[in-house]
Task: inverse folding
């Protein structure tokens, strides 16, 4: 059962509104996002690239710059080693492009998800050594590769780590001992002793900070690298980083740049997927473009996506974009089949009774385990690990809920794991097959989640009558964009909403269009895009089939809901009318004897 929570955060909204030329309502929404104080509010509304922190504040940035300037001057061979997801691909592109433009002799290698696994391994280092590489620069990986980096150093190689993942540690009597790789320079804001003020950057954003600082230290014009902010923005959204502080500025600026991008690969991908450049939002990165870039690393090789970003010729870019879209379509089919299988296990076996779901799907393609885990988490609102057979042992991915730190909980089970890494809300792991049940038992034995932690919280910004849904309000709400994790769309609520009529639309019958009326008598069009069967089933359970059929026939009925919504405008044949999108609902009154 969802917990609906109405925020009540106080401030002088009238005064804030006057100072920043916004409505008191928008001032309230900003306060609800814990943006407090003149400097923070100004940056939230008006922040630009000039408000970003200096990359030189990162620990070891000065060491990395000294090394790279020397290597570039001596024309030593450099290799970027990235990762196969959207963050690693864009981080690789940023380093490759940035270093090339600054005169480096540089190439790139990205591990194959199936044969190499995540991050640095011995084979990648030996491959670089055999190719005569002098210096390796990692991105979006490396912080957990202490042994591999030690091997590279034994071979006489120079290694610079740029990463954003948690630093591995051992815990003894509540004390954490961190294990940093002994690279020549380690750039990761999460490492102990790093004074960089913002810890939430993705790997690509850190890669951008490195090439920006290098460019500046070489006396070159940093503006020449501005286009790489597009890639930092794509990675920030695609890697589901919190859209606050620096991340929000990077994404806001990056989206504007994407609207006029000169990157042929991105132009072709937008064209192929039907995304209009001048209307691109964070949503399109997260749910349209991002999955296509990710699909290459899941079902083929991430080098194909990197090749798209580097494409200079439209014909080549169009072909690559089409291939990535086709790969993503295949990935969707595989995902749907695996999700169905996972649901069956949760519903019919003891696994479903656990607070932490450990689901073993031997036939699941290992590349989609994380997506499947995410979908199962959405359905059951529990931490989920999906495990599958790999070339060596078992591999898995986890997706978590707010109250459960996956990385910390896996750290408590590290004796059962051959490898693990990640964040609070997402993690990857490897283990031997015989340890699956022991892992499931240990994760649940250690679990301290309470029942209230396992109830999804719907945070409501304010109650608002439908009469307030105007074009002016919708335009003003755009000042809060970009929306995403850490800066979600505002949630408005209304009680005692009558459904006047309803119609099921769409080729797949997956859209519900309603005419609704609030307690003040204001009517408005409402759309519902989620699980329509579940919506109608709940209405039937509370009001009966007769009432639901009456609603769908446009006849009088007794259905009354509380609902949360987001306002918008529907434009048809040049005419704009207010509209809402329903996000959550509750049956407000139940008929005593609903007619079946």
Result:
């Amino acid at each position: 059962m969802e917990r609906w929570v109405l925020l009540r955060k106080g401030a002088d909204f009238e005064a804030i509104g006057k100072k920043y030329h916004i409505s008191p309502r928008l001032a309230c929404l900003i306060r609800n996002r814990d943006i407090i104080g003149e400097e923070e509010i100004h940056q939230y509304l008006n922040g630009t690239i000039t408000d970003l922190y200096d990359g030189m504040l990162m620990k070891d940035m000065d060491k990395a710059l000294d090394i790279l300037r020397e290597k570039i001057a001596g024309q030593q061979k450099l290799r970027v080693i990235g990762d196969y997801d959207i963050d690693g691909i864009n981080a690789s592109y940023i380093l490759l492009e940035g270093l090339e433009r600054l005169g480096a002799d540089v190439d790139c290698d990205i591990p194959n998800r199936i044969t190499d696994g995540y991050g640095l391994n011995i084979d990648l280092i030996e491959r670089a050594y055999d190719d005569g590489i002098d210096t390796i620069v990692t991105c979006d990986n490396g912080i957990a590769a202490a042994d591999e980096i030690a091997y590279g150093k034994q071979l006489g190689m120079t290694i610079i780590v740029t990463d954003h993942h948690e630093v591995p540690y051992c815990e003894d009597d509540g004390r954490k001992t961190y294990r940093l790789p002994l690279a020549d320079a380690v750039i990761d804001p999460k490492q102990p002793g790093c004074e960089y003020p913002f810890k939430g950057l993705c790997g690509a954003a850190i890669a951008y900070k490195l090439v920006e600082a290098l460019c500046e230290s070489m006396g070159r014009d940093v503006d020449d690298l501005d286009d790489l902010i597009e890639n930092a923005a794509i990675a920030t959204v695609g890697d589901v980083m919190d859209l606050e502080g620096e991340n929000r500025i990077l994404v806001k600026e990056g989206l504007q740049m994407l609207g006029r991008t000169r990157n042929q690969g991105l132009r072709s991908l937008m064209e192929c997927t039907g995304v209009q450049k001048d209307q691109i939002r964070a949503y399109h990165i997260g749910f349209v473009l991002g999955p296509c870039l990710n699909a290459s690393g899941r079902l083929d090789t991430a080098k194909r996506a990197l090749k798209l970003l580097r494409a200079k010729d439209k014909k080549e870019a169009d072909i690559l974009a089409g291939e990535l879209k086709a790969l993503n379509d295949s990935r969707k089919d595989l995902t749907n089949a695996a999700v169905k299988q996972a649901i069956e296990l949760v519903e019919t076996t003891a696994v479903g009774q656990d607070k932490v779901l450990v689901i073993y799907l031997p036939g699941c393609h290992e590349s989609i385990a994380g997506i499947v885990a995410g979908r199962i988490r959405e359905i059951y609102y529990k931490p989920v690990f999906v495990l599958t057979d790999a070339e060596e042992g078992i591999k898995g991915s986890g997706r978590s809920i707010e109250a459960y730190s996956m990385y910390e909980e896996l750290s408590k089970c590290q004796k059962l794991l051959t490898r693990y890494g990640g964040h609070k809300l997402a993690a990857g792991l490897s283990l031997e097959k015989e340890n699956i049940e022991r892992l499931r038992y240990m994760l649940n034995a250690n679990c301290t989640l309470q029942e209230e932690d396992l109830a999804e919280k719907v945070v409501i910004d304010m109650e608002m009558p439908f009469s307030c849904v105007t074009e002016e309000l919708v335009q003003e709400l755009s000042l809060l964009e970009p929306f995403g994790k850490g800066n979600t769309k505002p949630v408005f609520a209304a009680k005692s909403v009558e459904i006047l009529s309803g119609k099921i639309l769409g080729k797949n019958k997956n859209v519900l269009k309603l005419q609704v009326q609030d307690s003040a008598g204001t009517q408005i069009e409402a759309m519902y895009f989620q699980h329509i069967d579940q919506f109608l089933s709940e209405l039937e359970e509370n009001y009966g089939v007769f009432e639901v059929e009456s609603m769908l026939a446009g006849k009088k009925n007794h259905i009354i809901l509380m609902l949360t919504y987001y306002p918008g405008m529907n434009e048809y044949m040049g005419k704009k009318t207010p509209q809402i999108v329903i996000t959550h609902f509750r049956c407000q009154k139940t008929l005593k004897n609903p007619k079946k």
About this structure: The radius of gyration is 26 Å. Residues 483 and 489 are 6 Å apart (CA to CA). Residues 314-348 form the longest helix (35 residues).
